[in-house]
Amino acid sequence: MAQCPGCELLPPPPPTDGQLFLWPPLGHTAGKLEASLVADGFEVTEPAPNCLSVAVSAAMLELARDRWPQALSAAELEDCKCLILPTGVMPSFADLAQVQSLATLLGKLSGRWLTEILGEGRLATHFQPIVHTADPSNIFAHECLVRGVDRQGKLVSPFALYKAARDGKILFHLDRAARLQHIKAARQNNIATAIFINFNPTSIYDPAFCLKSTVAAIGNSGIEPSRFVFEVVESDEVNDPDRLPRILDFYREAGFRVALDDLGAGYSSLNMLSRLKPDFVKLDMELIRNIDKDPYKASIVGKLLEVARSVDVQTIVEGVETEGEWQWSIENGADYAQGYLFAKPAPTPYRELNFRTTASV
């Protein structure tokens, strides 16, 4: 199977010299951009109708990164197209593939730190146990959670990582690097439980190509493929109705199991349950919060658990933080549970779990 040449290559950072061409969607957008540049002492030209141009420099890009998100709306940033070319070169049809939204350019400028983290392999795995609901001392699985590591050794949150990846259009690269890091960490730590690994389906175009490195890494890990559970996150963002089933079929054919995250959170989650037929579903932590005190939530989650049982899908309640939430989950037949009541994510997997000790932390 041929390897996609772009899969392992991070896109280069925006050049800090040349000429920036801007095609604003509206006249007042052009006016705001020009006023901002002129106020900072940059010369703006209009090489063609509805097109602005300014010389690129590191200082100019730094000001644009900091000021334009305040000067323009999110819609204007997305609809304004831009292109950086060498000085003296005018745009042509051949440059069309390099045109991007101004929002993406600014995202790449703001997210250079993430490109450095990925390029230098500075990702880490934290592990959070998933326990048998009726016996929390019995660990069923570990979920692998990604963290970045800055140059001072401090951890970077997954929220910051994924926001920068989306803004800079490198979500595929982060998602792939995180999967490979988790597989490596599972092997190094000799995890004996099931291993849950998140993946974002919007970052996968064709599983036969985009997931080739993941399958190879598991094959080289020496871990039985069936112990890996690939957990779909943000499934409601997948616009192609046939795309996600193709991805999950690919995982299953490779011997892995699959889970659907945050059941009950997305408008299409029940439809996804019927179409995807996952091995596991996770119930959204916002539904679990204070469920023992909220009859409305209890009714909804109770029905979700009933539906899952009727189609032989195992259930995991997320975000369990109180004894009341845990007891409700037992009484209503949830198979597994995950949350701070039992254990917080840690850099090494839990070998055993003293539930009473953990709960008192």
What does this structure look like?
- The protein has about 350 residues and is of the alpha/beta class.
- It has two domains: about 90 residues, Alpha-Beta Plaits (2-Layer Sandwich), CATH 3.30.70; about 240 residues, TIM Barrel, CATH 3.20.20.450.
- It is about 40% helix and about 20% strand.
- The protein is built from 15 helices and 14 strands.
- An eight-stranded mixed β-barrel has the order 6-7-9-10-11-12-13-14, surrounded by five helices.
- Strand 10, helix 10 and strand 11 form a beta-alpha-beta unit.
- The termini are far apart.
- The C terminus is likely disordered.
List keywords for this structure.
single chain; 361 residues; alpha/beta; Alpha-Beta Plaits; TIM Barrel; 8-stranded mixed barrel; 5-stranded antiparallel β-sheet
- Mind telling me the CATH class of the largest domain? Alpha Beta
Termini separation comes to: 50 Å
CATH superfamily of the largest domain: EAL domain
- Count of discrete domains: 2
Q: What's the alpha carbon Rg, rounded to whole Å?
A: 24 Å
Helix content: 40-55%
CATH architecture classification name of the largest domain = Alpha-Beta Barrel
Mean pLDDT: 90
Uncertain residue segments: 357-361
Query: Percent of residues in beta strands?
Result: 15-25%
Shape: elongated
Q: Helix and strand succession?
A: EHEEHHEEHHEEEHHEHHEHEHEHHEHEH
Largest sheet features: 8 strands, mixed, barrel
Please count the beta strands (DSSP E, at least 2 residues each).
14
SSE class: alpha/beta
Strand order of the largest sheet: 6-7-9-10-11-12-13-14
Number of helices: 15
